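Attaching the record inline, Q. Sequence:
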Amino acid sequence: MNRSTAGADQDRGLEEGLEPLKRWAKRLLDGVIQDDLGCRDLEFVWVDPQAVDPSAQSAIDDTALRNGTATIDEVRARRGLAPLPHGAGAEARVYTATGLQPLTGGAAAQQSVKEPLTDAGPSAEPRSGPG
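Structure, as predicted:
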């Protein structure tokens, strides 16, 4: 079994395992809607989530992690995984040329907030065109 068929087999197994529970919940909710609420023309219907290509979702998650818009724990939660122990994945980080940097705290982050740029350099001066 390779990775491509393993993912499909896992999805199929999960779906087959949930089907009896979904049928039971539908019968229960249909009874509440139709008998208790008196809406005989309505029924409960499951809406299947739209499938996202796993490689595309992985690229989206990778970008969100690298630019600090998501934490490791947020990505793990979307995938149905438990957070990392001891809060290791709770802090947003950004990948820079010097390596992984936390977005909160740290001397460099505090320093850049305290000291705004004072010299914009020659590129800040307006250029005059010909004429």
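Strands lie at 93-96, 99-102. The longest strand covers residues 93-96.

More tomorrow.
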